[in-house]
Amino acid sequence: MHESMYQHKLFKENLAKLRSAGVHVLEPKIEEGKAKLASVEEVVQFVIELLGSRDMEGMRVLVTAGPTVEPIDPIKLITNRSSGKMGVAVARVAASRGAEVALIYGPGTEAPPSNVKVVRVQTTREMCEAFKRELKSPRDIIVSTAAAQDFAIERPAERKLRHFEPPTLKLVPAPRVLDEVRKLAPNAFVVGFKAEFKVSDEELLAAAKEKLGEGLDMVVANDVARPGAGFGSETNDVIIVTSSGSKVMRATKVEIAKAILDAAMARLRGRG
Questions:
Q1: Mind listing the pLDDT tens digit for each residue in 177-214?
Q2: Which residues are CB-contacts of 160 (< 8 A; sequence separation ≥ 6)?
Q3: Are 159 and 174 contacting, i.e. CB atoms less than 8 angstroms apart?
Q4: For 31-70, what is each residue's pLDDT tens digit?
Q5: Distance (Å) of CA 44 to CA 80, 92, 234, 253
Q6: Residue 266: strand pairing partners
Q7: Residue of 219, 218, 236, 217 whose CA lies nearest to 227
Q8: Do 174 and 197 contact (CB within 8 A), yes or no?
């Protein structure tokens, strides 16, 4: 309908009567002077929130997701194959359980949920800066799934490089997203992710334990070379490691997101 009709006094009064009678109302999108029906994804998410558990109400969750990119010139860049599916799943599940969620999102291909705060970034430095800004507000749970670039180009070209002038690229270490997390959020439950390639279970577990020693509460490690565990897959094959032990989980990314948040909530309740 036209926005003027939606904003009409009589329509608003009738809408208020429906709400007072217990009817749940999903607000439309106001675009181009019209009140447009919410998308299918928004309707599904709204219903999930109404029917699902609200055990995370009052929790403040920060998630990083997707890849980052580092420019070679104004057109070309280096990146990785991360789709953002895992982080988006965590953000969606946390929001559906009542949490207040902020998602720092690199250029992934998975659509983020409409009911969370989304902070768009491109480079690893931008992600780190956004992460620090978001941690100026208290957070209860931090889940860093982002596949941030480990290296950046030291001096990106200011113009497009042509095919007959191949550059010699000098890579320098990029900042690490979780480096200062314990100083910035000393009381948060912090989850990090570790991606490896063609390693044994023993090597994957050792890598996860090493990362856990960086002050994290949980590390979720996977070998992206394994079937059903790579970037863009709906499923994952992970080792979840905490100070109390480890477990293997082969499931959808949504199910893994639920397991991560369940463990975080159990630990936070135990602290209380």
A1: 999 999 999 999 999 999 999 999 999 999 999 999 99
A2: 73, 74, 75, 76
A3: no
A4: 888 999 888 877 887 787 778 789 999 999 999 999 999 9
A5: 30, 11, 18, 18
A6: none
A7: 236
A8: no
How many domains, in total, are found in the chain? 1
- Reported for 249-253, long-range contacts at CB under 8 A and 24+ positions apart, including other chains, are 253/85, 253/86, 253/89
Asked if residue 32 is part of any domain, the answer here is: no
12 in any annotated domain: no
Query: Alpha-carbon distance 258 to 174, whole Å?
Result: 31
The domain in which residue 80 lies consists of 40-271
- CA 111 → CA 44, 101, 246, distances in Å? 14, 15, 31
CATH number at residue 241: 3.40.50.10300
- Quote the tokens at residue 167: 């550059």
Residue 175 lies in a domain: yes
